[in-house]
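CORE FACILITY INTAKE
Project code: CF-77B
Contact: R.S. (postdoc)
Sample description: multi-component assembly, two entities in total
Requested service: structural model of the whole complex
Turnaround: standard
Below are the sequence entries exactly as provided by the requester. Do not edit them.
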Amino acid sequence: MLTIEHLNKSYGGDVKAVDDLSLTVLPGDIYGFIGHNGAGKTTTLRAIAGILSFDSGSIRIDGKSIVEEPIACKREMAYIPDNPDLYEHLTGIQYLNFVADIYGVSARLRDERIKKYADAFEMTPRLNDLIGSCSHGMKQKIAVISALIHSPKLLLLDEPFVGLDPKAAHTLKGFMKELCDDGSAIFFSTHVLEVAEKLCNKIAIIKNGRIVAAGDMDKVKGDESLETLFLELTEHA
Amino acid sequence: MREFWILTKLQISSLFGINKIRHMKNAEEKKQGKRALGGLAAMVFALGYVSVFYSIMMANAFAMLGMLPTLLGIMALAASLLILMFSIFETKGVLFGFGDYDIVMSWPVDVRAVAASRVCSMYAYNFVYAVLLLLPAGAVYAVKAAPALWFYPLYLLLMLLLPALPTIVGALLGTALTVLTARMKKKNNLMSILLQMALVIGIMAISMRGSSMVADPTKLADSAAALSGMIGNAYPPALWFQNALSTGSLLDALWLILLTAASIGLLMLWLGKNFVSINSRIKSKPRGETFVMRRQMRSGRVIALFRRELSRYFSSTLYVVNTAFSYVMLLAAGVALLVKADAVTQFLNSQELSFASVLMALPFVLGWIVSMGTTTSSSISMEGKSIWIIKSLPVSARDWFASKLMVTLMLAVPCVLVASTLIVVGLRQSLADAIWLYLVPLGYAAAFGVFGLWLNIRMPRLDWQSEAEVVKQGGATMVCVFAGMGAGFGPAILAGLTGSPLVPPVTFAVLIVLTLLMWRSLATDGERRLLLLH
């Protein structure tokens, strides 16, 4: 579903934000991406989402290059940044309809999905509110619903649980599993190692732009906890 | 005081995005930032050049009539009026309802220091305009009048003080509007737009009354006292400025200093008490009605983008007033020429202007007005921090540009058709003239719509805290306005002087070719440039 090969990105100067990064995400994977602040997680996610250019390497979504066929790639995926600045002048329902229109979601399907996800996140009554008047958590929920509205094959999430209340976080985890059970894949960054350990079947740890460990969760962490492994790799590697 | 300086320093560091450009690491971003700054610098130079030109022209005319000091009063009046209008627009976003309000107010600083730093930020922007208008006027006056040495330090002091009063009055008017419309966010945004438009038209009407007196040679020739009286009636501080500098009247200088100091003091006192409550009122947005799930309608991709763009446009009072005002002017010109056709003809004849020359120039003047209403020159910057949405959606840059262009054309095309029809009927134009009266302004609408996009994608500013930073002070907006002035007046003068019937078709053809070339550039290079935005 997602293949990254030898990805390099620097923001000027000698320091590389992402350094020769390669990894593969298969259909059905919930792939966690962890690393300390400034390790290169957001840069990698933004490059995959096609919103940030990179220096060299390749990113393919379902076999298509994000550089050569950006529109085709974006049709297959959805991205939510760590701080979703949505259109504050639109109401929640206007924003969801806008995204559904862009992805060409039929009227019947969008009705079903908006109802399903908005009800689950307890957002339905508030969909007439201007996004500008919503709390951070409510904006995050609208962003999540908009990302799920076209059933993406690849879901990219940058710190998706920040700002969500415990119930909403639980609901989101449920939808993530449901999406992957249907054959989609999820690649997401998080600092919450317990969530990554429980939710993900695969994990990659990034340090200073380089992958220091990646693969199946069980194989990567072995008998240790993910927290112990993370601290060992990021502090001593 | 220390808090005030720290906060003011923070405000000033964001002026024109200079600090951000200084610390950019990415070479491409730095290039983009420098280009934006270069555009601004070019515009400052252009405005300065126009100001010098006007100052010299007026100084020569006034010197002949033995009333050179009036130059100082007129320029002080013009600068104050400009600053007053800008301040009304800037209030919401700079003084109230600014993006970093929560974080700033969470610091252990005096509310008055926060408010003062915001007023200071407004003043800093306005001071740039004041310098651009007053410095050339002062220099020209100094060359012609050769004043004593005290003139120079006093001029600098009064030039420093002059922008404060209109900034404060503008801030108060802007605050009144903001408070009045704070609860009208969703459905009644139209009311907010109409109120601001009415205020601007009111100020312009008052100022035009004055300028028509200046333009009237009989009144100008009457005496210096008559004109000074007019300045004094319109805005006494402008007359104090003139008198203090031309006669060395200490009393007038003192009046100006005392009034400015008293206004600042009173404003600070008032803001200290009301700053938080007004901001809270603006920040608390009304909840919508409880949503009940009903059948949602599906739209096409481009229509969805267009609706989003239209909704963004009408969500910002500042954006609408700043651009749609041109179309109001266009329609007003149409109505005036329909209703007062005979009076206009008489006036033109009395001014020894050839009626035919004016008719030749008319399509280009309309084109210039249309170019000022272009919404596209700030439409990319207006995406702000939400730019990630368009970048991550399966939307081509071409469709995105098209949706923005459609908003400009949606406003411009009906207004041009109505205004041109009114003029054609009013002035009983021939078929050949009538065609160009429609086609030329429409050509300007298309060309400047695309030119605005072409500029803004090269000179974007997405990290704004207040919409005024891009709508009023954006480099692309300013370049577009000045380019429109040049593109309008150039052919207008050429057509008026030569009377050649070729000027309209050639201009129209050039506009269409440029439109196509710029659109092609956007279509081919747009994806790459969109990727660079963040």
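Facility notes:
- Chain A is about 40% helix and 25% strand.
- Chain A touches chain B through 51 residues (CB under 8 Å).
Invoice: internal transfer
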